[in-house]
Specification:
The structure is a single chain. This protein is α+β, with helices and mostly antiparallel strands. It has a single domain, classed as Gcn5-related N-acetyltransferase (GNAT) (Aminopeptidase, 3-Layer(aba) Sandwich). It is about 30% helix and about 25% strand. The protein contains 4 helices and 5 strands, in the order E-H-H-E-E-E-H-E-H. The protein has a 5-stranded mixed beta sheet, sandwiched between helices. The termini are far apart.
């Protein structure tokens, strides 16, 4: 049986589950194929705990970490309402195709509704067809403002550590 809950990052078992599952994601080709940095491992739990706009959801099978979703609040200027971005979503390999991801996403949607959000957002790699199918199954779709202009793309500009 899978139990989904809002994480308490002051609970050592929740903090450990977060780091374990995020490490799984980071090492997966869909997460970049490299583990978390030592800095991230040492500071992530405290940094997230200090951010009231961060929402961490965990799934456990008995006491074993099965899934993780980290949502970060943003703001839609066009709607003048908050939004919730699904920044990280991972399901441990042993628990895939058992509805864990779906349950995490539905919990995130419940949080977003409680916060008065206008939408949930997420990014997905073009080649991650399994995730795209799962996201479509719960109502996500590619984003576009105007079909004539095409779908939105997610870009980045890495910044060097403090100078």
């Amino acid at each position: 049986m899978i139990h989904v809950l809002d994480a308490d990052l002051n609970d050592p078992s929740h903090a450990s589950a977060l780091l374990t599952l995020l490490e799984v994601y980071a090492r997966d080709p869909m997460g970049g194929g490299q583990g978390l940095s030592g800095f991230a491992r040492a500071h992530l739990v405290d940094a997230l705990a200090r951010r009231p706009s961060a929402h961490v959801i965990l799934a456990f099978a008995k006491q074993e970490p099965a899934g993780l979703l980290i949502g970060l609040e943003g703001f839609s200027t066009f709607a003048c309402r908050p939004l919730l971005n699904v920044h990280d979503l991972v399901v441990a390999a042993a628990f895939r195709r058992q509805g864990v991801g779906r349950r995490l996403l539905l919990r995130a949607e419940a949080i977003a509704r409680r916060l008065g959000c206008c939408k949930l957002t997420l990014e997905v790699l073009e080649g991650n067809r399994a995730a795209q199918a799962a996201y479509r199954d719960v109502g996500f779709q590619p984003y576009q403002l105007n079909p004539a202009m095409g779908q939105a793309q997610f870009w980045e500009k890495p910044l060097p550590d403090g100078d």
